[in-house]
Amino acid sequence: xxxxxxxxxxxxxxxxxxxxxxxxxxxxxxxxxxxxxxxxxxxxxxxxxxxxxxxxxxxxxxxxxxxxxxxxxxxxxxxxxxxxxxxxxxxxxxxxxxxxxxxxxxxxxxxxxxxxxxxxxxxxxxxxxxxxxxxx
Amino acid sequence: xxxxxxxxxxxxxxxxxxxxxxxxxxxxxxxxxxxxxxxxxxxxxxxxxxxxxxxxxxxxxxxxxxxxxxxxxxxxxxxxxxxxxxxxxxxxxxxxxxxxxxxxxxxxxxxxxxxxxxxxxxxxxxxxxxxxxxxxxxxxxxxxxxxxxxxxxxxxxxxxxxxxxxxx
Lengths: 136, 168
Prior knowledge:
The complex is a heterodimer.
Chain A: E1 3-9, H1 12-24, E2 30-35, H2 41-55, E3 61-65, H3 71-77, E4 85-88, H4 93-98, H5 108-121, H6 126-135
Parallel strand pairs in A: 1-2, 1-3, 3-4
Chain B: E1 5-13, H1 19-29, E2 33-37, H2 45-54, E3 60-64, H3 66-72, E4 81-87, H4 90-98, E5 105-110, E6 118-121, E7 124-126, H5 128-140, E8 144-147, E9 156-157, H6 158-162
Helix pairs in contact in B: 3-4
């Protein structure tokens, strides 16, 4: 299994996990690190480092973070290592729901791309979708 | 000496470029340029790249060591690119000030210390040397110091925050 770490501003990550578990049941090998106003950058680094250690079972860790350029993302990026740690930004609920479909044979990079594509594909403007359906 | 910067914001933030800067301050001051002044980042390829990726390409990004920055740039509000200058610590901001970068207003966003002496706001924890440095800026140089994470927030007056621990 690839380990998954969600790093976000505030409790966004833990709430996303709660929402995903409501729909799909318990998420295995998924942890969350929250960054708030009071957090010290060095402390967050330590927290993320130990979460990565806990999660890495040999196939690496995928970090899903909320905002590219934000503190959770910046710190996550400092852990980037080929085939050890990969970072995907813009985490959303569809991405979390897709985690269980990461196949055993996928590399860390492939898993990251798979989750990214699913997250992007699941953003719709409802009226555009409706007009497409109407056109048949 | 490069003079084409219109410096809108001088800020101390130990997170340097992050969400509050890109999502709040950049649109608020209509920034066209961000200067990251930091000895550990400048020259470090990986960390420079991370910041370069995060900053939108239409914004000019300058990454400089404190000394190089203070020698090459002058604080000015004139025509030129609207600019945000970021320091990681009060120490660095004061060092640049002493070397000639004479700002008149300093914004403080996020400062954290495990061994802080005073908590001035939810994101500002100051230790003794920082308080001393700030007092020097306030008293000797007449710099206005405001504690404000994002533009829409009400600024905390530094004098108010420090009144219980020292005379200003």
